[in-house]
Amino acid sequence: MTGRLAFLTCLAILVVVTRSRAEESVSVPGSVPVLSPGTVPPPPAAVPEPAIPQPASTAPAAWPEPEPAPALVDQPRSYRHFLGLQVGGTLPIALYYRYRLLEPLFLEVGGFGAPEATALFTGGIVVAFHQSDRLMVYSGAGGSACLLGDNALAFLYGRLGLGVGLGARRQQMLSVDAGVWSGRLRKRDHDTQKLTTDRWFTIPMAGISYSVGLGND
């Protein structure tokens, strides 16, 4: 009987101790779990660090490189008026004026004179059928009349020429041309004023001229 009582007493004490440890192991919200001696605590949970906003870049945007300024140089120009001097071509010698009606058509008039000795006049058209930065290839046609003392000369002409622009603006032009004169020559005796020569002719001719352009567009 005494042995059974001691066994029951030990069993009751073991149940109480076991129940007490079970209650201690139950986690209570908001409480810190109590660890038994010799138990290694678990590592703390990793807490992500809040993202720190980076300040916006205040560096100025790169400016594009400025384009270089164009060189201040004279450029070829188109002129409406031309004044020049020619030997041959439309007359034995003449000062002439050329006016650009519309590209590539020009009107040309000229003349030369000396009192009681010489009177020369010419008029016609010039067509620049090829024109580049420096060169101009042209053709022309017209008529001329000359009074050389007691002699009279009247003729039609046709010519083909090449002009070269001079200077940075091509304002000056040096031209050479060749063609034909076809007309009538009448000569009189100076003393009697009797007609001594009256004939038709066709002869080749060549000419050279120099002109300056004015009134660019």
Task: Provide structural commentary.
The chain has a domain at 79-216: Porin (Beta Barrel), CATH 2.40.160. A hairpin with a 2-residue loop joins β1 and β2. It has one helix at residues 2-25, and strands spanning 79-88, 91-102, 105-114, 118-131, 135-148, 151-166, 172-188, 195-216. The relative contact order is 0.15. The mean pLDDT is 80. The protein has 217 residues and is mainly beta. The protein contains one helix and eight strands.
Q: Total helix count?
A: 1
Shape: rod-shaped
Gap from first CA to last CA: 143 Å
Helix proportion range: 10-25%
Mean pLDDT: 80
Whole-number radius of gyration? 58 Å
Order of helices and strands: HEEEEEEEE
**Main beta-sheet strand count, sense and barrel state:** 8 strands, antiparallel, barrel
Record keyword descriptors for this entry.
217 residues, mainly beta, Porin, eight-stranded antiparallel β-barrel, 1 helix, 11% helix
Brief sketch in words of this structure:
With 217 residues, the protein is mainly beta.
SSE layout:
Layout (H helix, E strand, L loop, with lengths): L1 H24 L53 E10 L2 E12 L2 E10 L3 E14 L3 E14 L2 E16 L5 E17 L6 E22 L1
Antiparallel strand pairs: 1-2, 1-8, 2-3, 3-4, 4-5, 5-6, 6-7, 7-8
